[in-house]
Amino acid sequence: MQIPRQAVLLRIFIGEDDRGPDHPLYESIVLKAREMHLAGATVLRGALGFGHSSRLHTAKILRLSLDLPLVVEIVDSEEKVNAFLPVLEGIMPSGLVTLEKVQVLQYGTSRE
């Protein structure tokens, strides 16, 4: 699988407790991205954050939150990411979604 040098980064900001149709939302997103043959997806867990509610979510022991912030990142061609967006909208009840253009320098083990 190849990714074009000029690609798009899709970032999805959600909470760890957010649910998809059958799984935690982050898992539903990654599984759907894999099913649609996107180049890859990574879930990053945050130690501290807040969203539209302004409620802090933290991993600090005194204010332990089980709903830590998560970011799902997906990089692929603009066309493939755009095709994924309606699917994402269908499984994502809330959160923040951003897109930005990126330059892919390496994908896989060989450089071109």
TrEMBL record:
Similarity field: Belongs to the UPF0166 family.
UniProt name for this protein: DUF190 domain-containing protein
SUPFAM superfamilies per UniProt: GlnB-like
Source species: Mesorhizobium hawassense
Gene3D superfamilies, per the entry: 3.30.70.120
Source organism, top-level taxon: Bacteria
